[in-house]
């Protein structure tokens, strides 16, 4: 074991005590895509004790240019990302315990996941701000440090959050630029750099007991990399870290929610997965790829449904209701 981690134990500022801490700790990684898969791989290679990884997506061909732990076998099989991650991580370091949660993290389950696994840190591998505000509020409520990470095109941001300032202090309102990785793209190096900086914050926390305290931003086209102290941004009226009102934990799940790249998702009865026998292009035990009304649909065995190429929640709802009607006839 000492030989395996010899080079990082010899690294100044890390050492055996940090290695022992890393190897005995649990990390909750929310999202198993570009950031979550890369963070998971690095933590597994460096000897983390237990990784709890949440994701409900399947591996797609368009993931492979940046999500380097996955391969064509995963995308061809439409493997669940968490299953593919567990399989690859087990081949990389079989001593790492991996718990997979094939659910989307929402207001309904985040607190129970935190309470059940009691991670040392939570790591943001999501691709949307709605979930990040849920993470922000749940982590503050449960006194849980977490690492915010975001990337788009050639730009990325990382910040380790422990109490104050929190994400709502930095971004009081959800950014509404309308940009996502489908419209603006995402370069593989951006995702890997952001994931690497997130892991750097993990290692800093392991070694020092706190984050760096710096907000790091990158632009890997102009090659501008900045870190700055943002303590002054702390909002004395913040509803999360000052008033402890936790607005994200009070919202109800909307029926249909918008995702990246013009796709919408919701949950339907899991019976639909068993009753739908038409329109199937590909299927396995947990996943069906459908072509319905000239739209691609992902249907998962737990009832999660994603409709592609729809541009409003009303349009998505109409397609889903039509599909349910056809499954019943
Ligand atoms: Zn705050």
UniProtKB/TrEMBL annotation:
Give the organism, scientific name.
Macrococcoides goetzii
Tell me one GO molecular function of this protein: sulfotransferase activity
Chain segments annotated as coiled-coil in the UniProt record: none
Which domain of life does the UniProt lineage start with?
Bacteria
The THIF-type NAD/FAD binding fold domain covers 5-239
Name under which the protein is recorded: HesA/MoeB/ThiF family protein
Q: Which InterPro entries match?
A: ThiF/MoeB/HesA, ThiF_NAD_FAD-bd, Ubiquitin-activating_enz
What family is reported?
Belongs to the HesA/MoeB/ThiF family.
């Amino acid at each position: 074991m000492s030989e395996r981690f010899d080079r990082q134990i010899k690294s100044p500022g890390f050492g055996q005590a940090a290695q022992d801490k890393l190897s005995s700790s649990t990390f909750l990684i929310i999202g198993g895509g570009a950031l979550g898969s890369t963070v998971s791989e690095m933590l597994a290679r460096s000897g983390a004790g237990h990784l709890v990884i949440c994701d409900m997506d399947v591996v797609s061909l368009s993931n492979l240019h940046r999500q380097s732990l996955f391969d064509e076998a995963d995308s061809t099989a439409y493997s669940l990302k968490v299953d593919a991650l567990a399989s690859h991580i087990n081949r990389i370091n079989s001593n790492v315990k991996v718990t997979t949660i094939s659910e989307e993290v929402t207001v309904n389950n985040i607190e129970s996941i935190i309470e059940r696994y009691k991670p040392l840190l939570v790591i943001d591998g999501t691709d949307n701000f709605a979930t990040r505000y849920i993470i922000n509020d749940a982590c503050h409520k449960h006194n849980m440090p977490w690492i915010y990470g975001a990337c788009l095109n050639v730009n990325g941001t990382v910040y380790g959050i422990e109490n104050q300032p929190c994400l709502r202090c930095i971004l009081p309102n959800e950014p509404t630029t309308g940009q996502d990785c489908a419209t603006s793209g995402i370069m593989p190096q951006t995702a890997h750099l952001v994931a690497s900086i997130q892991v750097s914050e993990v290692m800093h926390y392991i070694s020092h007991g706190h984050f760096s305290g710096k907000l790091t931003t990158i632009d890997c086209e102009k090659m501008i990399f900045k870190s700055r102290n943002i303590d002054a941004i702390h909002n004395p009226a913040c509803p999360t870290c000052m008033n402890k009102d936790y607005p994200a934990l009070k919202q109800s799940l909307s029926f249909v929610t918008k995702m990246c790249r013009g796709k919408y998702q919701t949950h339907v009865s899991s019976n639909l997965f068993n009753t739908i026998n038409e329109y199937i292009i590909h299927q396995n035990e947990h996943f069906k790829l459908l072509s319905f009304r000239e739209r691609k649909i992902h249907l998962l065995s737990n009832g999660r449904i994603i409709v592609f190429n729809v541009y409003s929640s009303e349009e998505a709802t109409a397609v889903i209701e039509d599909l349910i009607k056809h499954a019943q006839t």
